[in-house]
Amino acid sequence: MSHKPFKAVIPAAGLGTRFLPATKAMPKEMLPVVDKPAIQYVVEEAAAAGIEDVLIITGRNKHNIANHFDSVPELEEKLREKGDLDRLARVHKSSELADIHMVRQGEPKGLGHAVSRARRHVGDHPFAVLLGDDLIDARDPLLTKMLSEYDKRSATVIALMEVEPSQIHMYGAAAVEPTDDPDVVKVTGLVEKPATEDAPSNLAIIGRYVLDPSVFDVLEHTEPGKGGEIQLTDALQEMASDETGGGVYGVIFRGRRYDTGDRVDYIKAIVQLAADRDDLGPDLRPWFKEFAATL
């Protein structure tokens, strides 16, 4: 690996309007998924892939995110005095995962704009962008494969997932060509939220990207697109068309993914993750069956 170490960028400046009133005073990224805030799962994923430097792009009233990843001496001392070492270890974990940095986005001008705010911190390092609405099950690692493909191909890498054609209008869609790896494709084109009949495939972009720092120059001249926002997809489309920059490749993810950006899917994510846990599953799974039988 000849490049500088990877960094990670987590955009977290959204208003979370779909979860009002819960998000009136609490960032949506801090909503609990079982017993951890959603954003902690994302930072854990970056750390598990070997990334030690994480930048979180925040907005107004997001102070709770910084507080969560900071140490809390008073709480830690209370737990230590009580001998509650299990909870103490869990509290410590969130502040020891990585070097966490924060920067404000200012105006919410889209994902592309949020990523561009990372330029000063990222510099000339390659970096991963992880969206907090998409939780990837730790048992089905995705980011490690994406980092490996970046090293192998010296190219930007995005995560793709097959979805029902009727759902493709909710995502960015990729036109692709096969490679020597059945789980990796070369991306020849990208369309943000196309109509079903206009979609180049049913391969949807999900919230994981490994980007070359050259993306910042592209974002500088990317005009607002869908929704009047600066779309990262539009910048990636330009990079996919430019062979001199290495192009764009996609890793097709076939594992477990939880969408916490939608209320119903958020509840499903909690149920699925809790049912799979050794400390909760044995009590929950029989209850789920009994409850389902009453519906």
Automatic annotation (TrEMBL):
Catalytic activity from the UniProt record: alpha-D-glucose 1-phosphate + UTP + H(+) = UDP-alpha-D-glucose + diphosphate
Q: Nucleotidyl transferase domain: from which residue to which, for each copy?
A: 7-273
| GO MF term (any one) | UTP:glucose-1-phosphate uridylyltransferase activity
GO:BP terms for this protein? UDP-alpha-D-glucose metabolic process
Keywords, alphabetical: Nucleotidyltransferase, Transferase
Which Pfam families does the protein's record reference? NTP_transferase
- What does the record list as coiled-coil region(s)? none
Membrane-spanning intervals of the chain: none
UniProt-listed SUPFAM superfamilies: Nucleotide-diphospho-sugar transferases
Class in the EC hierarchy, top level: transferase
Q: Is the DNA damage keyword given for this protein?
A: no
For whether the record's keyword set contains Transferase, the answer is: yes
Q: Which InterPro entries match?
A: GalU_uridylyltTrfase_bac/arc, NTP_transferase_dom, Nucleotide-diphossugar_trans
Gene3D superfamilies attached here? Spore Coat Polysaccharide Biosynthesis Protein SpsA, Chain A
EC number in record: 2.7.7.9
Q: What family is it from?
A: Belongs to the UDPGP type 2 family.
Q: Which NCBIfam families match?
A: galU
Q: What is this protein called?
A: UTP--glucose-1-phosphate uridylyltransferase
Question: Per the UniProt entry, what species is this protein from, by scientific name?
Answer: Microbacterium halimionae
